[in-house]
Amino acid sequence: MSNTVGSDAAQQLEVILLDIDGTLLDSTYYHALAWQRAFAGVGIETPLWRVHRAVGMGGDLLVTEVAGEQAEEQHGDELRERWDREYQAVLDEVRPFAGAAEFVRAAKAAGYRVALASSGASKFTDKALELLGLSADEVDAITSSDDAEESKPAPDILAVALERAGGGRALAIGDSTWDARAATRFGVPAIGVRTGGISEAELREAGCAEVVDSVAELIERDLGALG
């Protein structure tokens, strides 16, 4: 059996559900910095490490996770608006991970359908494609925060992405424990990548069946066997 993305064993697997931030784009720490600055703007001081650990869950949940229910009640909408402005201010510094676009193209060439399952704002998913050098025609589905009632770790985004990609047996790939938990709740296997700054042990504990350093390592892997 060939140990490549396109081996015969891969035929049972049909759809790759790919997270974007921290998985395809080196953006996790920029998101954390933007959130920290947003919190500081309303007088809430929080250490960057605590914010970082919440990145990957939806902005509708992150405020409570980081600063508590009172912060959400008093400042939730303002914090999300501030985060939006702060992240846009650093967006030009965000870069794709080496091999990210190549992995998407290799998966497509091997016959998989690829869905970008992000709970970020649509303007940021559009920018992600631009940064990756991918066109919308090179993926089968793209989601945003507008597409689900509940964000990660709820599985809603994965369900929408899979439906838009045509359904079938799926494998999720993400960098955060929130991605892994969403995949587990959705009932699909998950591969974790360490490019978001989360340890292998934590990713496995959250539900990842396999953990690699980056998506570039998966270009030559048998995804069908992993899935």
UniProtKB/TrEMBL annotation:
GO terms for cellular component: cytosol. The keyword Hydrolase applies. Keywords: Hydrolase. It comes from the Bacteria. InterPro entries: HAD-like_hydrolase_sf (IPR050155), HAD-like_sf (IPR036412), HAD-SF_hydro_IA (IPR006439), HAD_sf (IPR023214), PGP-like_dom2 (IPR023198). Gene3D superfamilies: HAD superfamily/HAD-like, Putative phosphatase, domain 2. Pfam families: Hydrolase. GO terms for biological process: DNA repair. One of its GO terms (molecular function) is phosphoglycolate phosphatase activity. NCBIfam families: HAD-SF-IA-v1 (TIGR01549). PANTHER family: BLL8046 PROTEIN, PHOSPHOGLYCOLATE PHOSPHATASE. This is HAD family hydrolase. It comes from Enemella evansiae. The lineage of its organism: Bacteria, Bacillati, Actinomycetota, Actinomycetes, Propionibacteriales.
